[in-house]
Amino acid sequence: MTNLGNNAADGVVNLVDDLLTRAIARRASDLHFDPNEDQLRVRYRLDGLLQDVDHLPGALADNVIARLKVLAGLLTYRKDIPQEGALKADPSWMNGAAPIDIRVATFPTVRGERAVLRLMYSVGQVSGLNELGLAAGMVTELRLAAEQPQGLILVTGPAGSGKSTTLYALARHILTVTPGRSVTSLEDPVEQQVGGMAQIQIQPHGELNYARAMRSLLRQDVEVLLVGEIRDAETAHIVTEAALTGHLIMSTLHSGDPAEAVGRLLEMGIATYQVVSALTVVAAQRLLRTVCPACGGQGRCTACMSTGYLGRTACGQIAVMDDTLRRAVLDHRPIGQLRDIIRRDRPDLAADARRLVEEGKTTMDEVRRVLGMLGP
Prior knowledge:
By secondary structure, the protein is α/β, with parallel strands linked by helices. It is built from 13 helices and 13 strands. The protein has 2 domains: about 10-120, Beta-Lactamase; about 130-375, Rossmann fold, CATH 3.40.50. The protein has helices at about 10-25, 60-70, 90-95, 135-145, 165-175, 210-215, 235-245, 260-265, 270-280, 325-330, 335-345, 350-360, 365-370, and strands at about 30-35, 40-45, 50-55, 85-90, 100-110, 110-120, 150-155, 185, 200, 225, 250-255, 280-290, 310-320. The strands form 2 sheets. A 7-stranded mixed sheet has the order 9-8-10-11-7-12-13, sandwiched between helices. A 6-stranded antiparallel sheet has the order 3-2-1-6-5-4, covered by helices on one side. α8 (about 260-265) packs antiparallel against α11. The protein is globular, with a radius of gyration of 22 Å.
């Protein structure tokens, strides 16, 4: 447990600074401050999993949360409502690295306030499609889809499966191979800055939401539009219509696999003839932790915090809207049959995950943890 020293006020400031410095050095994606009966539990999300890093005295919990609120510009005296804010990382936390944005969200619980911080790294991320870890054939099909003048490209998977990273890689590919195209993004929030792409941060609960922003942008000579997420039927309809009227649209959707993604669009009221005409490809993906190179996956080193894993890579499945799949959708085939049709020509998620195991990049235990019932 951390020792604060004599000066409690300075101690809390130094403590929070130290926790943020350590989190950034480990490239944690999130920090959790969870109040318990007599402690404030601190955890980092590393490679997709939460790891305990400290247990602070419960008497300090209010002061630690208050310090986080001050940094994020939140109201310290309001402990009864959720609050959200943001801040730029202090240079002293970065150890010479590029500055990052940090988002702070607090929430009242029966044991005190809880705080979760999201660290938004703008550099050092995967930048190219060939760096994602996906199979070469899937990367080739994604590139071909991105080079088309119009259509809808969907990347699907649960939260934290790397969907946004894949969209950014697609955008960078477009900007590289066709530098004359007008590329714009609508995001909530902007997670990475991409040179050459006009990036707009929308306000989902304000006046500038996805639907309103898209309607306006499509009148501003946009050729390629990256939409952070299709969250509702209204957004789905606008995205589909844009793809049908000469725009290339790239977006994400929460669904398990490509067949389920097609079903989600139909459930949102998109007509079957529009789905088969607009949709170009659907790529589903998951992130798997990779074997720690320092200890060979034995979990015996500080680099991986004794977990045996360090870093992550992607497995995936892609569905291309070819004649066979198009006819099946128009015939209103059930999701299970669509899944079988897609799987005939291209490996499913479990098969692609086994590829990574055979290459020695991950383990079967990790595949079962991530894929669950979808796995082998």
